Amino acid sequence: MxxxxxxxxxxxxxxxxxxxxxxxxxxxxxxxVKFKKxxxxxxxxxxxxxxxxxxxxxxxxxGMAVDINGLLVFWSKILSRFDGxxxxxxxxxxxxxxVNLTKxxxxxxxxxxxxxxxxxxxxxKELKKGTIIISHGFPVLEYKSKLxxxxxxxxxxxxxxxx
Length: 163
Description:
Number of domains: 1
Shape: globular
Largest sheet: 7 strands, mixed
Structural class: alpha/beta
CATH superfamily: Vaccinia Virus protein VP39
Helix content: 25-40%
Order of helices and strands: HHEHEHEEHEEE
């Protein structure tokens, strides 16, 4: 079995398999947000950091891409060097439950509901008022009253929340 295959199994066992989002869909998801200049966009479970890379290339923001899989983080750094987004992104190899989110203005999730639920206490403790959470695929049930938009899509809906 290859190192890459083992790393994908590892990601799955840690709670979130690597499922890349198509570039066109990434743009569609991000266009629904009104980004403020120099805001911090954090992608939890970033994989190849496609969403973060797309965000910093198209909006005047900074990014932080967090994934537990070091091989995927390494790959995302390489990709960002080629697409010009590297200087605006902080790449972090860490469990998403252990990363500091106090400076985040935008959080992006494409995670299973079980992992989203584990993040709720962290969000409640660390995220500031006004933070936008974008959850692709699954709702954040705890924040049902904070839902500002839901966009239905053929595969997965995208939910937008303002804390």
